[in-house]
Design goal:
- About 50% of the residues lie in helices and about 5% in strands.
- With about 325 residues, it is mainly α.
- The longest helix is centred in the first third of the chain and has 25 residues.
- It is globular.
Length: about 325
């Protein structure tokens, strides 16, 4: 290695190059083997980034297998990072990121068994979340903003939807593909049970739609023909049956995390700086429960770990307040 070169920097530079290549391949209009190829590159980007974290924060020798010159596997690196971050922060903050990486890596290693194109939607959602997680990871632990000079957009723009949401909900893939989808769903359920409110996938913008003849439905899928968005609604009925399961109702979670809100603002107004003025605006945004929602790791202890979520309207409101100087 050339003198003066930082191993952490070399790992991150290679990692970022792999990520950009994965996004570029994913976004090409016509390319065969899109998702297996993009997944290989994005998983490799994460593997190098995780090893950079291990090298910098856990121990330089820990990136190598014992008594070997070979570096550790992605799974070992992910476990080390997850355990270290969760221990330092005393919560399960990294668990959703970990699950996302492991599921993508399983698809990468076994895509020969998952040749069914019905998996494309779930892989799209996993990849989208993996890229957002990657951006947040580098910002927080390496003070590196990969979007500073590159306007990365992973969502497709074209003449038609990449898949039909309602048809996909029917899960008509092959046996192996359905098994993988169920693993993703099981991971989401486990995170929810453990009160980890971060997600392993990127979903769809939700909306309220009129639904006919749904009085006795347990699950309703509503499609807005104009926007082609999908919303799942769980129907409930009040009963005095003591054997009926107990259900805790919570308001629907607003769609944008703080980082995602910043990304939307930057996309619309690249000139806006995230400085003290912006921070003062965000204090006002948090006071408006239609624009901001607080989710606590333990809902019973509202002095514990918490995370803010924002509505789509918060993007326009932040821009308006910034322009008017109304803080």
């Amino acid at each position: 290695m050339p003198r003066g070169k930082s191993i952490t920097k070399l790992l991150l530079d290679s990692s970022q190059a792999a990520l950009f290549a994965g996004i570029e391949i994913h976004n090409k209009p016509n390319i065969p083997y899109r998702y297996p190829t993009a997944t290989i590159l994005i998983v490799n980007a994460w593997k190098l980034a995780l090893k950079a974290y291990v090298y910098k924060f856990i121990g330089r020798k820990r990136i190598f297998e014992k008594n070997s010159e070979h570096t550790i596997s992605l799974t070992k690196a992910a476990v080390l990072v997850r355990d270290n971050i969760n221990t330092v922060k005393k919560n399960k903050e990294f668990q959703a990121v970990f699950d996302n990486i492991i599921l993508l890596n399983e698809f990468r290693c076994s895509n020969i068994h998952y040749a069914d194109e019905k998996l494309d939607p779930i892989i799209f959602m996993l990849i989208s979340r993996a890229v957002l997680n990657y951006d947040n990871f580098l910002k927080e632990y390496f003070n590196k903003d990969i979007t500073k000079n590159d306007n990365l957009i992973i969502l497709p723009v074209g003449l038609k939807l990449p898949f039909d949401p309602v048809e996909y909900l029917k899960q008509k893939g092959g046996k192996g593909s359905n098994k993988f989808v169920n693993k993703v769903l099981d991971s989401i359920k486990t995170l929810y049970k453990e009160q980890v409110h971060d997600t392993i996938i990127v979903g769809f913008d939700l909306f309220t739609a009129s639904v006919k003849k749904a009085e006795n439905a347990d699950l309703v899928a509503a499609i807005d023909q104009a926007n082609a968005d999908v919303r799942l609604i769980k129907a409930v009925r009040i009963t005095d049956d003591e054997k009926a399961p107990l259900v805790r109702l919570e308001p629907e979670l607003l769609p944008l995390s703080y980082i995602e809100l910043q990304q939307r603002i930057k996309l619309n107004r690249p000139d806006i700086k995230f400085n003290s003025i912006f921070n003062d605006i965000m204090k006002e945004i948090k006071k408006n429960n239609t624009l901001c929602q607080t989710r606590y790791l333990d809902p019973k202890i509202k002095t514990g770990t918490k995370k803010y979520f924002y509505s789509e309207k918060a993007v326009d409101e932040v821009i308006r307040m910034y322009d008017e100087g109304s803080v």
